[in-house]
Amino acid sequence: MKLRLDRYLAEMGLGTRSEIKKAIAKGLVRVNDTIVKKAEFKLDTETDTVFFQNQAVSYIEYEYYMLNKPAGVISASEDRKESTVVDLITERKRNDLFPVGRLDRDTEGLLLITNDGALSHRLLSPKKHVDKTYYAEIHGEVTEEDVEQFAEGVDIGDEKLTMPAELIILESGMESKIELTIREGRFHQVKRMFRAVGKEVVYLKRLRMGSLVLDQGLKPGEYRELTKEEMEQLC
Ligand code: URA
User: Can you give the pLDDT at residue 6?
Assistant: First the structure.
């Protein structure tokens, strides 16, 4: 792929575009054996080697991380005041990562962090109906009637009822534990579905999104790169 030198270095997180332009003008950047002082210089990411202050900077086009999102962090790329899910990916190479979809601040669990816009689109497109499975703890007794209602569709105050969802009761009592699989991604959907049947979600964690399953070895706040198998299944 052909890319401008300043863009190459900015995407690899070596500074802002203007910082990089200054470094290039100062002669701190080399492409193969030649110092290049023009930010607009076009290089070939496959055949050229770029050095920044004599350190080779390899180019990575896409990154894919599975994060176990902790509570208290917002699902955004950057924020002036708050810590974001992308801030947690401390070993990231690129500066354009984003979360695929959003989990509420208090929700934990599976979040894919990438810069692959096409994959994100495929996973989030309302037409694709990618299954998402959540584990939740509920204040109130979850009943077989709720299971039936969720399977039929619930009125959560939108134009349309929710699509059929699979509710599995793990424990039922004053406090219940469930797993719920939904095929949409409406705003606060799980919480609103339980509110519609008079119950409250007190803990929510995403376990699965399409073929991607949360790695149980990841503690909240931990992440890892996707494996080759996970990539193949997703793509
Ligand atoms: N549904 C919710 O209510 N919250 C989330 O974070 C995800 C799904």
Answer: 96
Q: What is the pTM of this model?
A: 0.90
Residue 147: which H helix or E strand, with range? Answer: helix 144-152
199 CA distance to ligand 1 middle (Å): 15
Q: What are the DSSP E strand ranges found in the chain?
A: 2-4, 29-31, 34-35, 42-44, 50-52, 55-57, 64-69, 98-99, 108-114, 132-139, 166-171, 175-182, 200-209, 212-213, 223-225
The single-letter code of the amino acid at 155 is D
Q: Which residues are registered as beta bridge partners of 109?
A: 69, 206
Ligand 1 neighbours by CB, cut-off 6 Å? 103-104, 107, 188-191, 204
- Ligand 1 atom 7, closest CA: 103
CA 102 remoteness from chain centre: 7
Q: Which residues of the chain have pLDDT under 70?
A: none
HSE toward the beta carbon, residue 8, CA cutoff 13 A: 27
Task: Give the H/E segment covering residue 66.
Answer: strand 64-69
User: CA-based diameter of the chain, in Å?
Assistant: 72
